[in-house]
Amino acid sequence: MFRWITISLLTLLVVGVAVFAYKEHQDKNAILIQAENSYQRAFHELTSDVDTLHDKIGATLAMNTRKQLSPQMAEIWRITSEASSDVGQLPLTLLPFNKTEEFLFDIGDFAYNTAIRDLDKEPLSEEEIAGLEELYKQSGDIKNELRKVQNMVLKDNLRWMDVELALATNDETGDNTIINGFKTVEKSMDGFQQTNMETGISSRPDEKDLSHLKGEKINKDKAIQIAQEWFGEVEPSEFTITDSGKGADIPTVTASFHKDKRNGYMDMSKQGGYPLTIMVARDVEETKISLNEASNKAKEYVDKLELKDMELIESSQYDNVGVFRYVYTEDDIRYYPSTVQVKVALDNGEMLGLDALQYYSRPNESINQEPSLSEEEAKEMINPNLEVQENYLAVIENDAQELVLCYEFLTTKDDETYRIFINADNGEEEKVETLNTSEEKFTTDIS
Amino acid sequence: MLMYIVLYLYKTTSINKRWVRGVNEMARKKTVMFALLFTLLILPVPEMNHSGKIHAFTNQVIQQGAVGQDVIELQARLKHLGFYSKDVDGVFGWSTYWAVRNFQYEFGMEIDGLVGPEMKNKLVKASKGYEQYLPSGDGQTNKQGQAQGGGGGGQQSTPSEPTAVNVPGGYSQNDIKLMANAVYGEARGEPYEGQVAVAAVILNRLDSATFPNTISGVIFEPRAFTAVADGQIWLTPNDTAEKAVIDAINGWDPSGNATYYFNPNTATSGWIWSRPQIKQIGKHIFCK
């Protein structure tokens, strides 16, 4: 009797477990299929986008009318942005696929700049057409390679989940067809980078450069000494000093210390020991000093950098810290690329952070300081619905990454404030920004 | 005002009188009289305290970017006078700045956008009865408000809290939250600078040609962050992570313009080792 009860109970249990396991298995499969499907969609969309891209570039080359060219370029720009978004949805982050992504970026950039340009006044140059032809060739190569991969995927029912798995299990040498396919695509891009640079199609943002800084290379003792000047009561032995590695844009020395309640971190340039980034982490007590007092403190720290002619242009309070942005001003001209930021605790006015990297990495290149337009002339370039409140002369970096002298106008329309930069030489609107620095709290529970 | 209160009290007590029986009439009348006199003495004092203490500027000079009760009062007063038309939210933004400047212009003061003692005096004198513009819920003691302090500081009771916050560089609170989630999931055991560096990497990827152009795109890119893959991104982040994100958005970048980082002890990809390394912060190596 007892035996039978046990047997039936166990049987029930086994059946129960089997049913449960089957259900789990089904659920898991459903999720896997869904994930696989979204990968597949992104991949197939990518191939079709590259396909269209190739066609469109080809059509542009055959075009003669300027009227057609601009919309076509806008279309190319749209497709490249979609293609990059597709790439972003595929598990390729740890695969060398950079060059292809950069290629898409380059085409997009070029297409955008051409689309917004007045082609009647400034038609495509010989060089640019040569560059476009080059792009056509490259996109053709990518298209073919991707088509091959796609064909394999469809023929052999390859799954992107296997790619994930192969990458996750560190199977670098593993023979995954999709991975190999993408490596081939990437390889086909080799050598193109150079030609793109030459034809002026690729323009990567220039890296930070501090080589203009004067001074000797600093050693460890000097680094500790500089760090002590900024952090105060920290023993030399408490600092950890490290040099930056080979990949750094600029050689830096890092000094850091970790105490119970106060941590500090400081980057300084190897050349001359200029402080670039300083951060102090500690718990900040309740607010005791006002933002205004804090800004005076902040100024003291900027003065400590021995930077002259720094003007406060922005201050904001975040809970119990204040962040202040200073900009270099010479002859009443603001140099926006040369900024220094200071973060001050509002409990005792101690500096919690300083960022002067931007300032030091922008040598104050000589720029024509005489505007050819008068202030009144520049004002006429502004939308008449706007009311001008303040204006300055300012140097900014425009979309083409050139320094330009501008009139800066702070204007209002209804309740909105806009910052508008009008080129002081040709009256073009270089930049229009909506100034919106605060946002409503959506829940009162955020603390 | 007082007369009404006295009358009211008298009325209520006389109604009570009818209800209560068997109480000595004389003694009752005496008590009432005494109570009335007493209220006369006491009542005005707390009333003045009310308007005097709770809504008054502290001594600070208020400048653009400030947050707190002083700003709420400033905005309410300017709104009462018609200089300011937006919501009274407690954040000294651009609209408040222009309102202050216009006030200074109209009242013949030096136009500097700073709210100092002179401006406060003139403002207080000019804006009697501004209370209607204070945000609702005013006058209640708010525990959270006390904990947060705010720009005013030093007040016993907190009238009301700012209903908005400063957000850096055009990012929304939700962007910041999402990034804080990622930073917390990826680097919660790291020193503060390590957390700022991770946040900076996310921002550097936004600018890079080889990564998506939105914060969510960068964070949710498959295989980009392990915290996303294993679900740790959905842990609730602490304040430190959020502060690190705000610092990174404000421009601090201890990573040295890195777009990748990895933990050398757990890195599964050989490729990542081939990237040019910039520096190590905590357990993470940052690279290009």
From TrEMBL, chain A:
Q: Which residues form the PepSY domain?
A: 373-433
Q: What is the lineage of its organism?
A: Bacteria, Bacillati, Bacillota, Bacilli, Bacillales
Occurrences of domain Sporulation protein YpeB PepSY1 and PepSY2 (ranges): 180-362
Keyword Coiled coil assigned to the entry: answer is yes
Which Gene Ontology BP annotations are present? Answer: spore germination
Name its species: Halobacillus andaensis
**Superkingdom of this protein's organism:** Bacteria
**What InterPro entries does the record tag this protein with?**
PepSY, YpeB_N, YpeB_PepSY1-2
- Pfam families from the xrefs? PepSY, YPEB_N, YPEB_PepSY1-2
Give UniProt keywords alphabetically: Coiled coil
Coiled-coil spans are 284-311
Sporulation protein YpeB N-terminal domain sequence ranges: 28-162
Task: Tell me the protein's name.
Answer: Germination protein YpeB
Q: Could you list the residue ranges that cross the membrane?
A: none
